[in-house]
Amino acid sequence: MPDESLPLAVVTGGARGIGEAIVDALVDSGNRVAIVDVNDKAVARAAERPAARAGLVVAQQLSITDRAAAEAAMAGLATRFGPIRSLVNNAGMTLPSSFLDQTDDDWDRIVTVNLTGTFIMSQIAARQMVDAGTGAIVNVSSVSAHGVRTGPPAYAAAKAGVEGLSRLMAVQLGPLGVRVNTVVVGTTTTPWLLSRKSDDELARMRESTLTGQLGEPSDVAQAVAFLCSNAAKHITGQMLSVSGGQWMP
Q: Which segments of the protein form a coiled coil according to its record (predicted)?
């Protein structure tokens, strides 16, 4: 029999950065969390964290663009822990380029991970949620989708696609008991960002916010945990900007 003592949340890209903070917030709010991440070394590290050793977190390597592997992984999780109650589509990637030098190969890779991966994981999880009559999906987008900061055109387009997909999912899944919302993330002090930006660049980024501060991974994580929780049971089809006012819906 599956262990349904705790509701199961799945976080894609949950082994690092913002995803790691989301996992912590969901555990703190009473969930068992399954991390799926393409980086096998990060997955191995996540499996050694205290929450994992306590049985509150499980982690496995998975490419979210591999439908067959994703279906097998999600079915396996349901067998062990019961149907998925929350899905956070946090996994994403980008590559540096401008509009004039974006290559077709990079475009395809970025769009496939950020948009197609979100579609695949959402569809698989939503089928479990619909069968159970309840569930919440939170998709992670970016202020880049709104022209707030420069970056690769494929990333901006993919995140804009995620937002459109989220609205469509909310309309079609709401009557079936599944809520779908989007968190739009601004500049956030992940290890990845801090390792690549100078102090002057970070200062300019802070100036682009209304609060004069950059976001922290925990800021995004708390917003996601709220949208997954029963406290948000009457919230669906919304975009919540966690950006210090970089973008205001």
A: none
The H or E element containing residue 242 is: strand 239-242
Specify the fold of 8-242: Rossmann fold (3.40.50)
What is the average per-residue pLDDT within 125-150?
95
Which tens digit of pLDDT belongs to each residue from 73-102?
Answer: 999 999 999 999 999 999 999 999 999 999
Closest CA to 58 of 85, 39, 81: 81
Catalytic residue check, 155: yes
The answer to whether residues 107 and 43 touch, using CB atoms and an 8 Å cutoff, is no
Residue 176 and residue 179: Cα distance in Å, rounded?
Answer: 9
Q: Name the pTM for this structure.
A: 0.96
Would you tell me how many other CB atoms lie within 10 Å of the CB of residue 153?
18
Which of 81, 107, 155, 247 is labelled catalytic? 155
Closest CA to 136 of 232, 219, 221: 232
Domain segments of the chain as ranges: 8-242
- Tell me the one-letter amino acid at 62: L
Q: How many CA atoms lie within 13 A of 122 on its CB side?
A: 29
Q: Which of 35, 34, 37 is nearest to 79 (CA)?
A: 34
Count how many residues are written for the chain.
249
